[in-house]
Amino acid sequence: MQSFIYSVVLTQDKEDGGFVVRFIDFPEAITQGKTVEDALIEASDCLEEAIANRIVMGLPIPTPSPIKNGQYAVALPAQMAVKAALYLALQEIDLTKIELARRLGCDEKEVRHLIDPHYSSTLSRIEAALSAVGNGTFTFRGSTESQRISLMEDNFMKDKQLLERVTLNPKVMVGKPVIKGTRLTVDYILNLLAHGATVTEILDEYNGLTQEDIQACLLFATKSLEDSVFMPLAVEAA
């Protein structure tokens, strides 16, 4: 599955103050925030809307460019990421929504909802659709069956190898998931990213840490969220 972590550049707005955010891979996506933290929060929303618009308009979704010095990493929210993955898979194959619905044992309307970026779908259902696409008898355009299988295996192995970088040991950091060979917890790395630290800054601060370790933290969090049930923090009065 394609990664959906994109690089952005923050520029100080000398006239109005704050920071202007521009995406390297989405020229149409521009936003701003009063602080770096605000700007990155706005960037996540902007990225989600940019990809939603591309899905609606049937436009390509670019592969993320490498994150360079001075740039920040912005991850696409989990549900939009899996919808985008399903959209890309259907772009690559000769498989109709009717056929996908048949494989899932549902009607075509539900399939349209699974792809619709503005319709709330469960992650498990979208994952089932991705599985139905991946396990079907389709072939990628211009690819042989063996190449298709090889690509699927490569994606699975990449995720598996990344997740092997995260370990849990009751004797280390009270059993929290940590990056293998360190005492750096997954939640600590995510907190650094959430508060504006760039991947480059984190790697410079912690010798021996790699970009793959950061990706492993993000993937671990995504996989954990897929199996989580959220309760509202507050209930509004009727």
What would you note in describing this structure?
This protein is an alpha+beta fold. The protein has 3 domains: 5-75, Double Stranded RNA Binding Domain; 78-138, 434 Repressor (Amino-terminal Domain) (Orthogonal Bundle); 161-225, Winged helix-like DNA-binding domain superfamily/Winged helix DNA-binding domain (Arc Repressor Mutant, subunit A, Orthogonal Bundle), CATH 1.10.10.10. It is 49% helix and 11% strand. The protein has helices at residues 36-57, 78-92, 97-104, 108-115, 123-134, 145-163, 186-194, 199-205, 211-226; strands spanning 5-12, 19-23, 30-33, 72-75, 166-167, 178-179. Helix 2 packs parallel to helix 5, helix 3 (97-104) crosses helix 4 and helix 7 crosses helix 9 (211-226). The protein starts with a strand and ends in a 12-residue tail after the last helix.
